[in-house]
Design brief:
Elements: H1 3-10, H2 16-22, E1 27-34, E2 47-52, E3 58-62, E4 68-74, E5 77-84, E6 91-97, E7 107-113, H3 128-131, H4 135-149, H5 153-166, H6 171-183, H7 187-200, H8 205-217, H9 221-234, H10 239-251, H11 255-268, H12 276-286, H13 290-303, H14 310-327
Parallel strand pairs: 1-7
Antiparallel strand pairs: 1-4, 2-3, 2-5, 5-6
């Protein structure tokens, strides 16, 4: 198992083979927001967005009063469901869409526990510059989102570019340009877009953590470390920030610090799309702690059996098991 392969997972890149397969089979994601409250959505229906971690794609939906929602015609891959409910903190869940979790009709079921609770100690403010974004730029941004839902990346990029030309202070549009570039393996362009988003809105956490990922994928290790440290300090509860910081430490040879971050990410959200188990397994293999590596690889494959890194993870798992067997007395 090679560290470079694992970095490909954290960079959220798509592979040509995966995209070719994605066009042959599609699935439906059917979800339910669950709550112990009698009327959990009395302040408004939940709004959801679905984001592909394999290619530039995002779609939107609204749940009904029972918390049920659907996304149709999805290629297999790793997705993140974002849930926004009025007067409540946003929710997020990583979902694997593919044959291992689908029923005979191609439906993948998921449940997301919902709790009416704000994030303590955090306030949200919008700058005057962001409020001054003209409607024409916002319309272009909405067009870009619609094109992403249709997987028309070229037109989406053009619409986001129009938005920032109309309103250079439009941090959200810069971030969207950066995400498209990152998922297209254009790392320098992605980093520049995320930097511009942060220039326009220094408090934009999404652009900050995305910049850390772009720098990491581009091999800018010292700069990535500084950015990922900032992100982890800003939101220590974010598994993406913790995993990217773990990767930064790993590639700088600071394995103990890497392990600490990755274990924290795993604790927060073990099924997270950044796959903290993979780099933990790499660390344990380097230490010759094969039993720990096997546990991490087994956990990863249980959660992400159809993911892009899964074939290499299976090979690494088999090799680790063979080495463990060879080390037993009498073998």
């Amino acid at each position: 198992m090679r560290a470079r392969l694992l970095l490909g997972g954290i960079a959220l890149l798509s592979l040509p083979g995966a995209l070719a397969e994605a066009q042959k089979t599609v699935y439906e994601l059917a979800g339910t927001l669950t709550s112990n409250e009698p009327r959990p959505f009395r302040d408004g229906l939940p709004r959801l967005s679905l984001h592909s971690m394999n290619s530039p794609f995002a779609s939107r939906a609204t749940a009904d009063m029972k918390g049920k929602f659907k996304f149709k015609k999805l290629p297999p891959g790793t997705y993140v469901v974002m849930v926004s409910v009025p007067r409540s903190r946003p929710l997020r869940k990583t979902v694997e869409v593919g044959p291992s979790f689908a029923d005979s009709k191609g439906r993948v079921a998921t449940t997301i526990p919902y709790e009416r609770k704000r994030v303590p100690g955090r306030t949200y403010a919008v700058s005057t510059a962001q409020l001054a974004i003209p409607d024409s730029a916002r319309l272009e941004f909405m067009k870009g989102q619609e094109y992403l839902a249709k997987r028309d990346v070229r037109r989406a990029r053009a619409a986001f570019q129009n938005a920032v030309e109309m309103a250079p202070q439009f941090a959200g549009a810069w971030n969207s340009l950066g995400r498209i570039a990152l998922q297209s393996a254009q790392y320098e362009e992605a980093a520049n877009a995320f930097r511009e988003a942060l220039k326009q809105n220094p408090a934009y956490y999404g652009a900050l953590v995305n910049l850390g990922g772009a720098l990491l994928a581009h091999g800018k290790l010292e700069e990535a470390l500084a950015v990922n440290q900032r992100a982890a300090r800003a939101r220590p509860e974010d598994p993406l920030a913790q995993t990217q910081l773990g990767h930064s430490y790993f590639f700088l040879g600071r394995l103990e610090e890497a392990e600490k971050c990755l274990k924290e990410a795993e604790k927060i959200e073990p099924e997270h799309f950044a796959f903290p188990q993979l780099l933990l397994a790499e660390i344990y293999i380097q230490r010759q702690d094969l039993s720990a590596a096997v546990r991490e690889l087994e956990d990863f494959l249980r959660r992400h059996p159809d993911s892009t890194p899964a074939p290499e993870a299976r090979k690494a798992l088999e090799m680790a098991r063979q080495q463990m067997a060879a080390q037993k007395p009498g073998s």
